UniProtKB/TrEMBL annotation:
<dbReference type="GO" id="GO:0005829">
    <property type="term" value="C:cytosol"/>
</dbReference>
<protein>
    <submittedName>
        <fullName>HAD family hydrolase</fullName>
    </submittedName>
</protein>
<dbReference type="GO" id="GO:0000287">
    <property type="term" value="F:magnesium ion binding"/>
</dbReference>
<dbReference type="InterPro" id="IPR036412">
    <property type="entry name" value="HAD-like_sf"/>
</dbReference>
<dbReference type="InterPro" id="IPR006379">
    <property type="entry name" value="HAD-SF_hydro_IIB"/>
</dbReference>
<dbReference type="GO" id="GO:0016791">
    <property type="term" value="F:phosphatase activity"/>
</dbReference>
<dbReference type="InterPro" id="IPR023214">
    <property type="entry name" value="HAD_sf"/>
</dbReference>
<dbReference type="InterPro" id="IPR000150">
    <property type="entry name" value="Cof"/>
</dbReference>
<dbReference type="Pfam" id="PF08282">
    <property type="entry name" value="Hydrolase_3"/>
</dbReference>
<keyword id="KW-0378">Hydrolase</keyword>
Length: 268
């Protein structure tokens, strides 16, 4: 494996770059500065909202690209260069279908705020980490902003209790299991892979010059956009079968381990 030609590094956040305490390691921040010196473009790609990503990576936010909401929104230095919100009529259809799913707690994700139709205490506790700028609403008519993603939360398992009931939406929308408790719905074009391909075109970077890390099913298209695709040790089985390579878990500095190898080859 020769990483010396890599010009673009892309990583998911939760379960990948962040440890289980949702922290970025000091080692990563050190390695990041070296990546920049080698003119490597760095992209954080997450199901998180843009404002939540910036909060986690505030020290380095001006030197990287953010792909938020599973690829629905991409921003570089406060400039939006990709925006794929859910069409208004499509959103109405999604709302109609998800309203029939028992114990599904919807979160409507806009650029600057999340709107929540739930009183689940477990969900509300999680929102302080993932969507800290949120508002609890009683009616979706209260949402006046463009919605990029509808995230459905289940207190036990989204894969078991939500996904089977909304699978029919896959013919028209991107439906992705993004974590144990979450399944996300967005426009078909809005995925991490589409965003990465646009970045590759923008900077004239090939698949063979791209390195990507992921752990869950919302990372699949992104991993397919990179020759050097790495599944975390803690990844979903489908991610492990898609990625060409595997690294250590997010708690064992799996991303950092590969980045160290990359930098060693760059410095030869």
């Amino acid at each position: 494996m020769n990483l010396s030609k890599v010009r673009l590094v892309v990583t998911d956040m939760d379960g990948t770059l962040l440890n289980t305490n949702h922290e970025v390691s000091p080692l990563f921040l050190q390695l990041f500065q070296k990546l920049i010196k080698h003119d490597i473009i760095f992209v954080a790609a997450s199901g998180r909202p843009y404002y939540g990503m910036v909060e986690k990576l505030s020290e380095i936010k001006d030197n990287m690209i953010f792909v938020a909401e599973n690829g629905g929104l991409a921003i570089h230095q406060n400039s939006v260069f990709l925006s794929n919100p859910i069409n208004e009529n499509n959103l109405k259809r999604i709302i109609t279908i998800i309203s029939t799913v028992e114990n599904a707690h919807p979160v409507f994700c806009t650029r600057n705020r999340a709107y929540v139709m739930s009183r689940s205490q477990q969900l509300l506790n999680l929102l302080s980490e993932y969507y800290h700028n949120y508002k609890v609403i009683n009616d979706t008519n209260e949402i006046k902003d463009e919605v990029y993603k509808v995230a459905l939360f289940h207190e036990e398992s989204s894969e078991k209790y939500i996904y089977p009931h909304i699978k029919e939406l896959e013919s028209n929308f991107k439906v992705k299991l993004s974590a144990t408790h979450w399944v996300d719905i967005s426009e078909n074009i809005a995925n991490k892979g589409t965003a990465i391909k646009q970045i590759q075109q923008r900077y004239n970077i090939s698949t063979e010059e791209t390195l990507a890390f992921g752990d869950y099913n919302n990372d699949l298209e992104m991993l397919e956009s990179a020759y050097f695709s790495f599944a975390m040790e803690n990844a979903h089985p489908k991610v492990k079968s898609t990625a060409r390579f595997q690294t250590k878990s997010n708690n064992d500095l799996g991303v950092e381990t590969v980045l160290q190898k990359l930098l060693l080859e760059k410095e030869k």
